[in-house]
Amino acid sequence: MTETSFISKTFDISNIKEKTFISSAPSNIALVKYWGKKEGQIPTNTSLSFTLNNCLTKTELTCFRQTKPNDTVNFSVFFEGKLKEDFKPKIRTFLNRILMYMPFLRDFKFEIRTQNTFPHSSGIASSASGMAALSACLMQLEKALNPKISDAYFNKKASFIARLGSGSASRSIEGPVVIWGNHPKIKNSSDLYGIKAPFKLHPNFKDYCDSILLVDKGEKTVLSSIGHGLMNMHPFASERFKQANKHVSEIAEVLKKGDLKTFMAIVESEALTLHAMMMTSNPYFILMKPNTLKIINKIWEFRASSGLNLCFTLDAGANVHLLYPQNEKEQTQLFIKDSLLQYCENEQVINDNLGLGLQA
Ligand code: PMV
Question: From ligand 1's centre to the CA of 233, what distance in Å?
Fold first, then answer.
């Protein structure tokens, strides 16, 4: 599908006078990372993620029909019940970007009320789940104005517009595995939206666990938008993009065949490569903290001595995502408690596992 196929042409605003739409969208964790983008939120390589289950943003969107269209999108935003003026610029940019695809946005005034299931300022990016939840609410509005749209179109366009809010948000609509970015070997993959991985996940990955260790809950020192931008002039960029696309092909095979050893090798290489790109950009920066490295070394020691399949990945921050199979949960969680919690702020960890995407 092309960009123009996402422009709403048929809609009847008289269907709604005042209505509230509700959606919950999960966060996701990239196994193959998106780092670098082109004009219009187009990724420079394909990425692949696990959709999470418990880390959610819940959004309520109330729409009030206006007597005449507004010049621009008119909205207010509340976070955990409190008016949040500082959330507005990012949401305004997002709404302005999607206006050409949803021209009916001018006909309403919006009240956006949002909250997360994970602690605020935990260092967990809420932009993916937040933008996905808002996009899903906006698609519910579109469906109310044009009831003919199919479920498949609903998900595609929800991902398409979520991408315009935050790239990784395009991967938070479906689950358990999502691929975003055109890839020659992945049928129907697209730079414009994420797709549910077009293969059956091996039972080894069923309900796969992700325990997120909160190493540093502070605000990010370098925003991901800046980091993506630094890939434009990066000396290793083209090799990195090739490597990511190769990793997507390889991990797709692994996820079908259930080969946990290769899974861990690709996932850890991706995490460290992401941070290596940060450390070698101009200007360079480091988002890992000393405790991030302590945890990584402990994981490697534990894996060697226990023979279990625990590996890690990292986002654009210091927190560590621990990935492990459901049937190794008991021993792994014991290890986390005894050996890793001491490296987390206030010993905080969030236990999550694979999820299926949007929840009503
Ligand atoms: O969606 P953004 O622009 O916040 O970028 C997210 C980038 C990473 O989290 C570091 C990797 C990824 O693919 O999610």
Answer: 18
